[in-house]
Automatic annotation (TrEMBL):
Protein name: Uncharacterized protein
Domain of life the protein comes from: Bacteria
Length: 179
């Protein structure tokens, strides 16, 4: 499950976990997520990244670690694993997922959640040029994930409704999956 910054991915992961589902907020795994230069080298993000720095670096998932997370869940007999997050290389990894879901919010909500959400799990949107860069990439992100076949879910609703809609969408996706 993915979405733009501020869409509620980590909040959904917490709620699904509280409801007894196996859900992982991927940003919380330091071995999985990191900033990388365009050549793939891991780097440390500056405290106040400017637009030039953000244009030449990406937030990425380590493929080996992602596979470890999925394999561990399979080994534990988990039937449904909710992987909740966003990374620049996530679109290249969709073959690892049975279905993809896109939490959708409008840009005004994105801006609001990113700037006033002191309880957010990260500071992206509140430091340097990160808010401007995130807002500038909004449309491309949504279009890309729709093209990849992600099922849209209205994430501007109450969190319980968002989670219920995700569970229903997942059930339909499972029913329509080729055998």
């Amino acid at each position: 499950m993915t979405g733009v910054s501020g869409a509620g991915k980590s909040t959904v992961a917490c709620r699904l976990s509280a409801w007894g589902h196996r859900a992982v907020s991927l940003d919380g795994d330091g071995r999985l997520c990191s900033w990388a230069a365009l050549d793939g080298r891991r780097v440390v993000r500056p405290a106040e990244p400017d637009a030039a720095w953000l244009a030449s670096h990406r937030w990425v998932w380590d493929v080996t670690r992602l596979d470890e997370i999925i394999a561990a869940a399979c080994g534990d007999g988990v039937e449904t694993l909710w992987l909740c997050g966003q990374a620049a290389n996530a679109g290249e990894l969709v073959d690892r997922f049975d279905a993809c879901f896109l939490l959708e919010i409008d840009q005004a909500t994105m801006r609001h959640r990113m700037t006033v959400g002191a309880g957010r799990g990260n500071d992206f949107g509140r430091v340097g040029a990160s808010l401007d860069v995130a807002l500038a990439g909004y449309r491309e992100f949504i279009v890309t994930w729709r093209r990849l076949g992600a099922v849209p879910v209205d994430a501007m609703q109450d969190i319980d409704q968002v989670c219920e809609d995700l569970l229903v969408a997942a059930a339909f996706a499972a029913l329509n999956r080729p055998s």
